[in-house]
Amino acid sequence: MRACRPRSAVLLLALVALAVAPPALGSRDAGLAALQVALKSRGLYRGSIDGLKGPLTTKAIKRFQRRAGLVVDGVPGTKTRRALGPYGQHVLGSRPLKRGAAGWDVAALQFVLAWHGFPSSTFDGGLGQHTLRALKRFQRWAGLTPDGVAGPSTYAALRSPLATCPIALAWPLVGPVSDVFGPRANRFHAGLDIAAPRGTSVQSAAPGRVVFAGFSFGGWGNLVIVNHSDGVATMYAHLDTIAVGRQQVVPGGFHLGAVGATGDATGPHLHFEVRVRGAAVDPLPALP
Question: Could you tell me the CATH superfamily of domain 177-286?
Answer without folding.
Answer: Glucose Permease (Domain IIA) (2.70.70.10)
